[in-house]
Amino acid sequence: MGGSMLDSGAAVPRSYERRTAKMDLPECPQCKFQGAASVHWRAPRFLRCRECGTIFRDPFPGESELANYYREGWKEPEENVVETGSTDGVIARYLADSLTDTLALRSLSGMRILDFGAGRGAMTLELMKRGAKLVAVEPFGYKFLAELGISVYRDLAHLPDELTFDGIVSLETIEHLRDPGGVLAGLYKRLSPGGWLLITTPNAAGLPARLMGQHWREAVKPGHIVFFTPAALSKILEKNGFSQVQRPRWFIRYPRASPLRALLHFGLQKLAIDGGLRMVAYRRQTKLPTADLLAEQGGKRALPE
User: CA-CA distances (angstroms) from residue 247 to 28, 69, 236, 272?
Assistant: First the structure.
């Protein structure tokens, strides 16, 4: 991945939008297409790229302002969960259970897993409890995670070149990234052949986003600078090499949700119109067989996906 994680992900300081002019010729942070964007929401202002479907803030944040925003948030990480990571232990358990089922594995024990954008480490710790070998990437919460005994790096580019993983989780991170495509390309390179990626992010096509529009609680969070629909995220994953992209229908029971709200969440998740988007994708197992190899095998062997 080119550049640092700081270059590719952070949040928008509240003062940024007040003092920065809107883009005259907006460039999509995902596909880099210029000028082909329409207004999606007005306050806060988001544009939608007509080329790839990515929804992004206008004005788009700069690196130094983002760094200052996150540094302030991490001064009190348990209080500023919007900036430091809202995934808690309960959600991490649901996600780990659902992931194990989707991968058709008895357990995750012994797997080498990267937690990219680990936040306060809830998912990292849950996977470690299950016997997985974890490495985390978290630039601003680096010291916080290190004190928990987690093997952590500040940036994806800082990992040893030879280090690859059986799986990668990236929870509620891509919506903070200035270069989501570049990050996905970097994550793909870190997967072993046949390795998997779990990515979660707010669902810009979900019922909450459609009903609330610019007042959607995910849109008003200053750290959220890009959003995706399921179709747009699938397209971006495939463009960066991933295959077998799927959107599993998991039921995630959120802490502190009343029975009525939990029932509502279940219905929305069942219909795949909830506010959360969860995608699983894979790196190809092997290269496609050559024509000579197929001839030797009589052309009977099925091609790998």
Answer: 24, 32, 14, 9
- For 151: left if phi > 0, alpha if psi spans -120 to 50, otherwise beta; the answer is beta
Residue 39 burial (10 A CB sphere; 0-12, 13-18, 19+): exposed
* Residues 82/62, Cβ–Cβ less than 8 Å: no
**Chain segment 22-72, per-residue pLDDT in tens:** 666 789 999 999 988 999 999 999 999 999 999 999 999 988 888 888 899
Distance CA 277, CA 304 (A): 27
Phi, psi at residue 56, to the nearest 5°?
-140, 155
Instruction: Report the DSSP beta bridge partners of residue 49.
Output: 37
Distance CA 81, CA 130 (A): 25
Task: Please count the helices (runs of H) and the strands (runs of E) in the chain.
Answer: 12, 11
DSSP category for residue 105: -
The whole-model pTM stands at: 0.86
Q: Identify any residues that bridge with 81 across adjacent strands, giving them in sequence order.
A: none
Q: What DSSP assignment string belongs to 70-85? A: HHHHTTSTTT-HHHH-
Q: Are 207 and 274 in contact (CB under 8 A)?
A: yes
- Among candidates 24, 21, 55, which has minimal Cα distance to 40? 55
